[in-house]
Amino acid sequence: VSDNPGASPDAAVRSYIQAQREAFLADLIEWLKIASISADPDQAGEVERSAQWLAEQLGGAGFPIVEVWPTAGLPAVYAQWDSADPGAPTVLVYGHHDVQPVDPVDLWDSLPFEPSLRDTPHGQELVGRGAIDDKGQVWFHTLGLAAHLATTGRTTPAVNLKLLVEGEEESGSIHFPELLRANRERLRADVVVVSDTGVYDRDTISTTTGMRGLIECQLDVTGPRGDLHSGSFGGAVPNPATVLARLLATLHDDAGRVTLPGYYDKVVALGDRERELLAALPFDEGRWLADAQSTATYGEAGFSTLERVGARPTAEVNGIWGGYNGPGGKTIVPSHAHAKLSFRLVAAMEPADVRSQFEQWLAARHEDATIPPGITVTATFEKSGVRPCLTPLDHPALQAVTRALGRAFGTRVLYTREGGSGPEADLGEVLQAPVVFLGVGLPDDRIHAPNEKADVEFLLRGAESAAYLWSDLAATWPRGS
Amino acid sequence: VSDNPGASPDAAVRSYIQAQREAFLADLIEWLKIASISADPDQAGEVERSAQWLAEQLGGAGFPIVEVWPTAGLPAVYAQWDSADPGAPTVLVYGHHDVQPVDPVDLWDSLPFEPSLRDTPHGQELVGRGAIDDKGQVWFHTLGLAAHLATTGRTTPAVNLKLLVEGEEESGSIHFPELLRANRERLRADVVVVSDTGVYDRDTISTTTGMRGLIECQLDVTGPRGDLHSGSFGGAVPNPATVLARLLATLHDDAGRVTLPGYYDKVVALGDRERELLAALPFDEGRWLADAQSTATYGEAGFSTLERVGARPTAEVNGIWGGYNGPGGKTIVPSHAHAKLSFRLVAAMEPADVRSQFEQWLAARHEDATIPPGITVTATFEKSGVRPCLTPLDHPALQAVTRALGRAFGTRVLYTREGGSGPEADLGEVLQAPVVFLGVGLPDDRIHAPNEKADVEFLLRGAESAAYLWSDLAATWPRGS
Fold first, then answer.
1. Which position among A351, A416, B337, B452 has the lowest Cβ density within 10 Å, counted as fewest Cβ atoms?
2. Which residues are CB-contacts of A210 (< 8 A; sequence separation ≥ 6)?
3. Facing residues of B308 across strands?
4. Chain mean position to CA B475
5. CB-CB neighbours of A107 under 10 Å
6. Cα(B180)–Cα(B159) distance, rounded to whole angstroms?
7. Cα four-point dihedral sign B359, B365, B367, B372
8. DSSP B451
9. Chain B interface, mutation test: which of A225, A242, A291, A377, most B Cβ atoms within 10 Å?
10. pLDDT tens per residue, range B188-228
11. B349 Cα distance to chain centroid
């Protein structure tokens, strides 16, 4: 793994991109005016219009194949431009053209769909819904590709380039896995490049090496068939709320480790190198706690906060309920009690394994009498879960992204782990390809919030990174693999 | 403690009572026609009318002092008839003249306020709301007193007799403690006789030796100031739902004992004799479980179900809530989690002690890190609580009640413990007098349900018991105490 102190940039690429700056921004602003809020059924027409706009632009940019792909919900855009070079690697770029809702509108300094450029001490920023999440990051690929072609003198990209721009990311990507599976052959790629994330901060350029997976369940603990008067029965029948509490209390051990049998068996251990690089991030625990609105950290012994959030699996209680919760008291033994649980997984855990581990764990709780006679417990897993994804530091695709970012930003590139889970993992899973992240968001971009913005310079560096990446991947990708 | 095989009854008392049977029932039926439902504001006039009816009847029965006592809610009736005998003990009889609502009316075989007499294999029963709970049991005292006077040739009772008949028992006795405290001097008594309970079953005559006390609290566990995304923060901040679970999980030890420090220190241990007598009750665990709608018992090691319910203190989780409880999942670390707890107390526990024990217990949970930094826990006790009451088996008042019941029913009298808590404990506490229970309800009387009934023979035996009790107390009460 090279430490990548930031290889020298290509002056031609950079000057091409700077020359296109105004045109790039003018087009992006036009797109940002389309209120493609996928969560709002009233804006479905705007999401359609956004897809059409993008398709036309991509056609104009030279993509020989451009299609609007309908789904049972809102449409995605697909574009493809194959390389004339035989044996060129195939890259699928993922982004989305839908945006978050804009409430509360009165907290915006300018109208969310009337984008405005503002000067800041760091340079210009573009304020508007979707500026960075994710239209700006999709759009920089058109500029990056143009720079790649113009500065290399090519008429086709050095890689077979596919673009998949989803229209439902901000409303749960409900139809995305279906879309992927239905188009698996056409989407086939050697590498997936996701452009929907960010760097660690303005001074710390980074890429993400993995995302956590997810599986969720509901735990239902049932005791007496009805609520009982605690005077007549309390102390002599098992209380399902107490049993639930005991189950949840033993889901972690004293070291903060999840107690499901075999839970950690498949976990890819953090290598010393990755731990070092994670530790090199200028993590400010005070600021992180302020974001968390918490006064203390807590978690698995032996791991830092960043490791706990990104590189370690967890089990969280998302909700509990049962019995009386109104004003005053009600002296009952409740008939039932419930919890919602979610497990965040890291590579190479399998969601299906967690399900069977949980069932074994429950069986053991019967054996050790945590679940006494008179109480039944069922766990219902609502979905098949989302797999984690992780690209090892020494993977050629990650190395190429690292070099591309390093050249564009002129700096060392560090690595982050994403604690959340998303459609990116579905991409990796369905397409059986490594997923890398080329994203230039900043932590203060206010995504999902009023006054969302993109730093214009970062968008341009994103384009520059993409231009480098296609040449780099074409040159370094192991052929015949 | 005498085993009381049932001393021989007084033929004169019994025949007097039998002679009055029809008049007794006719008057009771008149009273039962008054729909004195205290929980229904529309029936407030009926509760007033019930109080007036009773006051008139008690005046007619010879009580020199009869008053309707207003409260901030519905009225009580007070009557007093002092003994001419100097040094006679003073007895306060407690009952109530309000009744439960009658819904669902269509499940009644006859109209709830059109009482009807029915023949059964056991004799006659009187069906109607309030027949046993509690008008029938208040009313038998008028007959018992008349029999006492008639058969002893007295013009005043052998004891100073006070009657307090509440009008809000079925709606929470909200103003009762206030009423007691305001009239503490006039209500002063050596013994409180409660007639609002029952015997173990038709073949097992018993009296209650104690009721459990009660104190309730709400536990609020707060972590991050807002719900957090479990992807971004899960695994690295303390989860208040997990902390709540750990607290509730350790509220009992593996033997089912409550872990509050000193919780059992003041508990009056069950004596061997009382355990024997409790064990002598024909307890049918299968039937009890059917009533509990539970498939298994559970509780403190070393105690029977009846002991657990009546003679041992408990801690119950009455409700839990926090975080997400809707359909599907929501991957959050909840900001807060809550529980409602209630503690049933037995003599001689003090509600105020439990409060401070709970606070000590919470402090220890901070020390042992069950409550980690970043989490705050508060316990809010909503009321001052209700004290438990217990009359020892060898107490003269309990002995007298035992003898009176034994003579009336011609059988051995056993003892029960009441697991619930009620205004009876307030009586004992405010008046600083022992509380004994002279009640003739049967487990199948359907109190609070459609077709409430009273067994006529049991009501008459109640009257007979009262007649014996006044003479017995006068003769055996330790003078000068």
1. A351
2. A310, A311, A346, A347, A388, A389, A390, A391, A417, A418
3. none
4. 28
5. 10
6. 21
7. negative
8. T
9. A242
10. 999 999 999 999 999 999 999 999 999 999 999 999 999 99
11. 17
d(CA A477, CA A189): 13
Tell me, rounded to whole angstroms, the distance of Cα A15 from its chain centroid. Answer: 32
pLDDT band at A386 (very low <50, low <70, confident <90, very high): confident
Residues from chain A that touch B210, judged by Cβ atoms under 8 A, are none
Separation of alpha carbons A309 and A304, rounded Å: 9
Which structure tokens are listed for A65? 């194949």
For all residues of chain A together, what is the average pLDDT? 94
Tell whether omega for the bond before B220 is within 30 degrees of 0, i.e. cis: no
* Cα gap A132→A196, rounded to integer Å: 8
Average pLDDT of span B410-423: 90
**Rounded CA separation A155/A143 (Å):** 15
Kindly provide the ipTM of the predicted complex, given to two decimals. Answer: 0.89
Q: How many CB atoms lie within 10 A of CB A471?
A: 20
Cα A437 from Cα A70, distance rounded (Å): 26
* pTM exceeds cut of 0.90: no
Question: In terms of CA atoms, which chain B residue is nearest residue A421?
Answer: B231
Q: Do B331 and A216 touch (CB under 8 A)?
A: yes
Could you read off the pLDDT of B258-305 as tens digits, one per residue?
999 999 999 999 999 999 999 999 999 999 999 889 999 999 999 999
How far A328 CA lies from chain B's nearest CA (Å)? 7
pLDDT of residue B188: 97
Q: How far apart are CA A374 and CA B113, in angstroms?
A: 40
Coil vs helix vs strand at B130: coil
Nearest to B231 among A238, A372, A419 (CB): A419
Peptide bond into B196 cis (omega under 30): no
Residue pointed to by tokens 């026609």: B33
Identify the residue among B263, B316, B324, B346 best suited for mutation to test binding to A, counting A beta carbons within 10 A and taking the highest: B316
